[in-house]
Task: structure prediction
Amino acid sequence: MPTAIVAGGGIAGLASALALTQQGWRVTVLERAAVLGEVGAGVALARNGVASLQALGFDDGAIASIGTLSRAGGTFDLRGRPILALSEDVDGVTMRGVHRARLHGALLERVQERGVDLITGAQVTSPVPGVPGGAQAEVTADGITYRADLLVAADGVNSAVRAALAPVPQPVYSGYSSWRAVLDHTLDPPVLTQYWGPHAELGTMPIDDDRTYWYGYVKMPQGTLLLDEHLAASERFADWASPVRQIIAATPPGAVMRHDVFHLPGGMARYHHGRVVAVGDAAHAMLPTMGQGVATALEDGICVGKLVGEPVAAGGDLATALADYDAARRPRCRTIARSALASAIAGSHLGPGLQGVRNALMRLTPRSAISRGADAVMGWTPPV
Ligand SMILES: Cc1cc2nc3c(=O)[nH]c(=O)nc-3n(C[C@H](O)[C@H](O)[C@H](O)COP(=O)(O)OP(=O)(O)OC[C@H]3O[C@@H](n4cnc5c(N)ncnc54)[C@H](O)[C@@H]3O)c2cc1C
Result:
């Protein structure tokens, strides 16, 4: 039975672990946190993320229990005037609003059912990549050395495994920090809506029948300390449209969290080294402006199973399988990351001077172009 170590028990790590067990691998997940769990609030899971969950064995009922079906309602300016209002008849922009903790919990439950060894409080250090066809990969965690046929680097944007293998790319601060919160609130209509203003964006979406997620992505120096996150968010969006002000006002102050946003421009030059394969943010952390971080992490997991796990379990060559994974994943993730950057430049990163011009141009964009663009990203299907 081939063996794998997964460094990091986030969404990419658990999806990879699950996909490898589906191919008959014995898997150990090493997670540095004392308790396996997920911080964060909501996530808009697009069709490609849902297709990945299906390939991981989630049926319609299981997917419905993770998140609520919604659709993209479009983009509005800070006064609430449509820039790109989407109607129900625009295909390709349905999504599931999910709570990250619920998605992570569902993956965790399946990983446990499949007998994966989950070791917490295990900070991975000193990775040795090994050689396909030769020495195994190894890592140290909590004073113990682990060896396996495959090491999955799923340790996030600040990946220690990546840093040891490839000095570039380094995480870069986006210049933006993001407030996020979930509150008991019913959105009317229940759609994903985003508002753009100078150097800021605010989005709202339902994550179940009576809970709503919002994020406020704003320009801010790295490491800014705020005494009261809720008050600061209220002040930052004080002159925005009333739905924006209302949702912040309705949020319990303790429910507001904020994280500085980092990304890996260009992503890794290669998603494999020796016996190591990189997934999720460790390989290609992208700006959140396409809402594709979780979906591509799930896609990576499925592809590790299908493109690496399956052929190797059948006696195939690991080096070839890793090259196939790289060829399938790197161009796609780079393209999405570039789109996220382009979307940021034209959207939330745009300063005050050009808001009117941008809005006028976007109002002229044909809906069919939006649909095609969404399809290119969200129409992805897992390898068979
Ligand atoms: C503001 C914001 C909004 C977002 N919105 C969306 C959205 O709407 N839709 C979407 O799809 N994506 C979204 N994303 C992106 C998404 O959150 C990430 O892309 C995704 O969570 C990446 O998962 P991951 O498992 O690769 O990394 P992570 O979630 O970072 O998990 C890494 C895991 O590895 C562990 N770890 C780290 N180092 C070590 C080590 N040395 N040893 C052992 N364990 C280690 C960590 O504790 C963690 O558990 C958003 C991101 C941000 C910042």
About this structure: Residues 7-13, 30-33, 43-44, 123-124, 154-156, 160, 178, 215, 259, 261, 280-282, 288, 291-295, 297 surround flavin-adenine dinucleotide (CB under 6 Å). The longest strand covers residues 172-184.
